[in-house]
Amino acid sequence: MSEPGPLPPARDARRAEALGAALPPLLVAARRVAATVAQGVHGRRRVGQGDSFWQFRPFLPGDAVARIDWRQSAKSDRTFVRETEWEAAQTVALWADSSPSMRWRSRLAQVEKADRAVLLLLALAALLLRGGERVRLMAPNAQSHGGRDALERIAAALGAALVANPSGTSSGTPSARSLPPDLPLPRHATVVLFGDFLDPLPAIQSSLARLAAVPVHAHLMQVLDPAERALPFQGRVRFTDLEEEGDALIPRVEGVREAYAERFARHQEGLAALCGALGFGFATHMTDLPPEQALLSLYLALAPTLSPAGLPAAASLPGEAPAA
Questions:
Q1: Domain ranges of the chain
Q2: Which of 58, 86, 178, 281 is the most buried (most CB within 10 A)?
Q3: Burial code of 103-134, b = ≥16 C-beta within 10 A, e = fewer?
C-alpha cells in the first residue's frame, strides 16, 4: 500500500486548474454553508457611531440628556435613550494553503483538504460580506471587496491565483509553499489562515511571528484528513511525501501507531502554544465532519475583532440548542 506520490509540475498545474474549475460548485456550496450558519448567528450588531437605529434602552446616570428620545419616553413612565448601530466596515484578509500536501484525501473522507479549505474560505467570506465587512485574499496585488457581487469576484481571484501559482509560490522551500506569503498588511487587520500546518514548528513560528510583528489579529483553521490523526493503515506501507522531503517505508504500521499519536499530539500542542503566545486563535477541522460547525465556531471566534465587535448573543446551527 502507498500514499500518493509527488506531483510533477505539469500534473500539479492540471490539478490546480481542476480546483479552479471546481470553484463554481464550491461557491454554491459555500453560499449554502454560510446561509445555514447565518440562521444560527444573532445580534452581531453593537452600539456605535452611525445613522441606523438599533434599539431603545432605559436612561442611565451619566447619559447625555441630548440622547433621550422624548417621543418614546412619553409612552411610559420611564425615560429612554435612542441608540444607533456601529457601521464601520473592516477588511478581513483570507488565505488558503494550496501546496501539494493539501491535494490529498484518505478513504475516511470524501473531500481533499484543499477543497474543504477553499469551501470554508468562501463560506466565511460570504458570512463576513453579509455582515457588512470587506474581504480580500492574502495575495500579491489583492483588492478588498464588498457589496453584492463581492463573493464572485473573490472566487474568481482565488481561481486565477491557484491556476497561475499552483504550488503557493514560485520559489522557496516546501515549508514556504505551505505557509502564508510575507506580504504587507494593514496594522491591526484581521487575518484568517486555512491550511494543514504540518510543517516543522520552527517554520510555522517564523511565519506567524512576521504576522504578529505587523501586528494583526489572526486565526488559524487547521484542516486535516482524519487519517492524519488516526494513522489507520495496516501492514507494510510506503508513505510518499507530497512536498519533496523523501519517502518512508514502514514494514508494520500498527507498530508505530502509538509513537505517531504521541508525536501528532505534541505537534498540536505546539501549534496551540504558538498561537496562544501570539494572541492568535487556533482550531482544527477534520474533513470527514460537516463544514458548518467549523464555520460557526470560527465566526464566533472572529466576532470580537470585527468592526461591530461583540460576540453574538446566541448562536447555534438549525436543530441545535443555542450556544451557552
A1: 9-44+88-310, 53-84
A2: 178
A3: bbbbeebebbbbbbbbbbbbbbbbbbbbbbbb
Residue 22 has pLDDT above 70, yes or no: no
Q: Using DSSP, state whether 196 is helix, strand or coil.
A: coil
3-state secondary structure of 260: helix
pLDDT beyond 60 at 20: no
Pick the range with the lowest mean pLDDT from 117-121, 177-181, 199-203.
177-181
Rounded CA separation 108/119 (Å): 19
Split at pLDDT 50, 70, 90, the class of 2 is: very low
Q: Does residue 18 surpass a pLDDT of 70?
A: no
Q: At residue 113, does pLDDT exceed 90? A: yes
Least confident of 56-60, 89-93, 146-150, 283-287: 89-93
Dist. CA 227–CA 276, nearest whole Å = 26
Which of 3.30.2010, 2.60.40, 3.40.50, 3.30.70 would CATH assign to domain 9-44+88-310? 3.40.50
> 234 is written with which cell numbers?
495496516
Those residues with Cβ within 8 angstroms of residue 280's Cβ, 6 or more apart along the chain or in another chain: 208, 211, 212, 217, 218, 219, 220, 274
- 119-132: pLDDT as tens digits: 999 999 998 988 88
Q: How far is CA 220 from CA 180, 261, 279, in A?
A: 11, 22, 11
Task: State the Cα–Cα distance between residues 103 and 114, nearest whole angstrom.
Answer: 6
The length of the chain in residues reads 324
Cell, residue 161: 491565483
Q: Parallel, antiparallel, or unpaired: how do β-strands 91-96 and 134-137 relate? A: parallel
User: Could you tell me the CA-to-CA distances from 182 to 121, 125, 216, 262, 307 in Å, in that order?
Assistant: 19, 21, 13, 32, 25
How many whole angstroms separate alpha carbon 303 and alpha carbon 298? 9
